[in-house]
Amino acid sequence: MRVKMSTTGKTAHLVAALMALAMALSAATAFAQSANDTREIEPDPQNTAYWLRKREGWFWYRDPLVAAHRSVSPSNKPPRELVEFEAMQKRLEDLKRVAVMNPTDTNLTAYMRYQRMVMDKSEHFAKNWQRLVWSVPELDYGLTGRPTNAMAINVFDEQQQDRQAQTIKSLSATHGLIFMFRGDCPHCHRFAPILKGFEQEFGFTVLAISMDGRAIPEYPDARPDNGMAARLNATAVPALYLIAPTTRQIVPVGFGVMSMTDLVERIAALAPDAATVARQP
């Protein structure tokens, strides 16, 4: 027996079928769209672990890391003087470049006036510096190093010469000098009396060696060169060397004509190292 369906029941059934079909089509469209999205999405180089997070799903979105805004605290703010100094340097350099590239009267005047202002600041700085040095002894280099006052320089030089003389006299007990010369060398004849005076004043023993076999008045008993010049590579004369006989250590003092002051300063400067070498076993 057939049961006829009412018009209302047919309508409800049709609506339900249409809703089911719409939901199916929507799901299929969403699936296709998600498949296309997976092909278009590229992994974020800053988040290489994204593709390994399967539980988060394809549509999980995470905002990129944003650098925290660094607020400048009062402690990190540069001093006002530093900001003004850098601005002054930049202004001066800019005016200079403009004047160099376009040296008109206006550009040159602007640069020169600004430079004068900077020089005035520098002069004010120098005056305050000097005034502070006068009032704080430990900041005065003239009290610890070589003084700048003319009278103090004389005292300083005298004390230094006394110290150098004592050092050289002590060195003469353990060291000697080798004097290489040529009998036909006018510079050797000029230097020989100076060296002779140095020898007599400080008690050094001088071994004079003539490279050409000729004698010299101050050293008439000079020995002829037997290969010493080649060993010492004495290519210029007069040549003077400091020697420690116990260790046979030879150090060049200088070449050419040297004054008495030169000899004192150079040998005194070599004394600390020479004394150390002489003590070596």
Features:
281 residues; 5-stranded mixed beta sheet; elongated; Glutaredoxin; 8 helices
Indicate the CATH class of one domain.
Alpha Beta
Fill in the CATH topology of one domain.
Glutaredoxin
Query: Largest beta sheet, briefly?
Result: 5 strands, mixed
Question: Low-confidence segments, ≥5 residues, pLDDT <50?
Answer: none
Shape field? elongated
Name given to the CATH homologous superfamily of one domain: Glutaredoxin
Percentage of residues in strands: 5-15%
Summarize the structure.
This protein is an alpha/beta fold and 281 residues long.
What does this protein look like?
There is one protein chain. The chain is of the alpha/beta class. Among the domains are: 79-139, no CATH class; 153-279, Glutaredoxin. It has helices at residues 7-40, 80-101, 105-135, 141-144, 150-171, 186-202, 228-232, 260-279; strands at 176-181, 206-210, 223-224, 239-244, 249-255. A 5-stranded mixed sheet has the order 3-2-1-4-5. The protein is elongated and about 115 Å long.
Question: How would you summarize the topology of this molecule?
Answer:
Blueprint (H helix, E strand, L loop, with lengths): L6 H34 L39 H22 L3 H31 L5 H4 L5 H22 L4 E6 L4 H17 L3 E5 L12 E2 L3 H5 L6 E6 L4 E7 L4 H20 L2
Parallel strand pairs: 1-2, 2-3
Antiparallel strand pairs: 1-4, 4-5
Helix pairs in contact: 2-3, 5-8
